[in-house]
Design brief:
By secondary structure, the protein is mainly alpha-helical. Helix content is 55%, strand content 4%. The chain is globular.
Amino acid sequence: YKMRCVAKWDDEKDDLLDCYVSALKVENRSQKTVDRYVYVIKRMMQYVQVPTRHITVYHLRGYLSAEKERGIADQTLEGAREIFSAYFNWLQREGLIDKNPTANLGAIKCAKKEKKTYTEIDIENLNQHCKTLRDRAIINFLSSTGCRISEMTDLNRDAVNPQALECIVHGKGNKGRVVYMSPVAGMLISKYLESRKDDNPALFVGLGARRLQPGGVRAMLKVLADAAGVDHVHPHKFRRTLATNLTRHGMPIQEVANILGHEKLDTTMEYIVLNKDDTKSSYRRFT
């Protein structure tokens, strides 16, 4: 639903988004986050064709409604709404707009997807079907450290200590943290690095001894999943599995959050998959 306005939106003249991007960078937001915010906001602006200062809640609802009709998932729409909210809240705090159009833009209810984790058999199946030492090292590194895929592919050899079974990764906002790995992961990484003939500083390399990229890891996992017959194989599932297993074994939620690089415990809680049998057994133990 497009409201009439005196002026139309002009990407070149509307500098408020540039101001917001500068603020995000000062806050050390990752480039990936900044790019996503810019993409989502610009899509909306191109649709409503109205300068930022004249956008109303009706423009935003119209855009979200049009996206829903286009078949965009509720979860994606809610993510966009959250980005709009962050943007306009910031503009109002800075005194750049008088009225916040997201103040009355309610959250979009999303059907909760069932969270799944890898079983021990899943991990073993993936290991058994790895064709290279590198792939086995990647599977065991992801499953024991819970690193984000980009954190792993950004790692250099000198950041990893396979003997001490730990390494330093840089997560969102370029914040460094120590993560720990299993003895098997440490052994496989040592063997993999010893087998390398190249001088690339990257921990993991692909074709032509170039640094392995997230897309390469996803492609490898897809081939591996098909061969092993394991469903829903993706990098983030290793993080969820580790968080769930550590919690089940009694690790305090604060320590799990530190390992995953989460600032808020609520984020960590979203990763943990509660098992009904575990809940029942805890209830019996405490009552």
